[in-house]
Design a protein that fits this description.
The chain is built from one helix and four strands; from the N terminus they run H-E-E-E-E. The chain is an alpha+beta fold. It has a four-stranded antiparallel beta sheet, with helices on one face.
Length: 117
């Protein structure tokens, strides 16, 4: 939306980063089966601009599950108006920590299931 633009008229990178973090947090929460919080964002690559009217999709891939943390590779893709191919615009690794009701880190329960990375 126009309210999410920077001085150049493109979508503000912080808005896109927040959308990626929201999607990654949902994914991490499903893996951990608990509340999770973002503790690190690394290797962010802003490859292409996002324009007003682009349809943005965020895709998550599991990178690593540690004792209390989950690292997720997130990619933001856009479908521009009048185009048929999606374009990778941003990607990066986000790390989330599983927390208990008091907000303290807690071990991730795996139920003996194999989680492929």
């Amino acid at each position: 939306m126009p309210a999410d633009t920077n001085a150049n008229g493109d979508i503000f990178g912080g808005w896109l980063l927040s959308q990626m973090d929201l999607g990654g947090g949902v994914f991490a929460g499903k893996v951990a089966r608990s509340r999770t919080v973002t503790v690190a964002i690394e290797a962010m690559n802003f490859r292409k601009a996002v324009y007003v009217g682009d349809l943005v999709s965020v895709h998550a891939n599991l990178v690593r599950v540690g004792r209390t943390s989950i690292t997720v590779h997130l990619e933001a893709w856009v479908l521009r108006r009048r185009e048929q191919q999606s374009i990778l615009v941003t990607d990066g690794n986000f790390t989330y920590v599983s927390i208990d009701e008091q907000g303290h880190p807690q071990p991730i329960q795996r139920d003996g299931a194999t989680i492929s990375t």
